[in-house]
Amino acid sequence: VTIANNYSLKFGDANTRITGNATSDYLAFHPSTSEVMRITSTGISVTGAISASTTLAVTGTSTFSGNVLITSTAAGAGSGPVIDLYRNSAGSANGDVTGLINFHSNDSGGNKTRTSAIFTKIVDVTHGSEDSEIYITNMMAGLERNVFHISPTEITLNQDSLDLDFRVESDGNTHALFVEGSSGKVGIGEGAPSSL
User: What is the pLDDT of residues 70-98, one digit of tens each?
Assistant: First the structure.
């Protein structure tokens, strides 16, 4: 069946239709008066909610506008919902970034700015002795800083040696453990330590 350019295949009425445009290379899907999905030569654009009863696999770069809700209705002791970040590379090498979550916002000049990030790296790809590390970065005074790092050998806070206090609060003490960033002094139950 061949349908002329920019004509529609209609189902029952004029609203429920699929329109094909060979000039602009797209298929537009209208289950009612509004278009909800468009397939082009470069990707798929969907307006509205996407519901998948099994696995929804997305390959390539995708953009979601609005909120993303992931719900698991599974009962029992199994995990769920689950988000897998899988770098499926046949040529994995030490130092590869294996996953990255960016947090962006606009600054006062309207510039998109990464304000925080969580990412992981593979330290050793050797089968049976794999090592990895995870970083959390945060924007401070216009610079992105490494504030938390877990490596195969240690856990490090304030890797960039900033004037940044570290404080552990207990039920009855706001400074149960306190490291003063400016002086390096340590207090136990003390918010103004006087010695190292």
Answer: 888 888 888 888 888 889 888 999 999 99
pLDDT tens, residue by residue, 132-161:
999 999 999 999 999 999 999 999 999 999
SS (H, E, C) 32-75: CCCCCEEEECCCEEECCCCCCCCCCCCCCCCCCCCCCCCCCCCC
Secondary structure tally for the chain: helices H, strands E: 0, 13
Contact 138, 114 (CB under 8 A): no
Length of the chain: 196
The answer for residues whose C-beta is within 8 angstroms of residue 44's C-beta and 6 or more apart is 37, 38
Residue 13 token pair = 């009425």
Q: What is the pTM of this model?
A: 0.70
Q: Are 144 and 137 in contact (CB under 8 A)?
A: yes
As a whole number of angstroms, the distance between CA 135 and CA 156 comes to 10
Residue 158's pLDDT is 93
With residues binned 3-state (H G I as helix, E B as strand, rest as coil), the percentages for the chain, rounded to 5, are 0, 40, 60
Measure the CA–CA gap between 162 and 180, rounded to whole angstroms: 11
CA angle 108, 149, 143 (to 5 degrees): 25
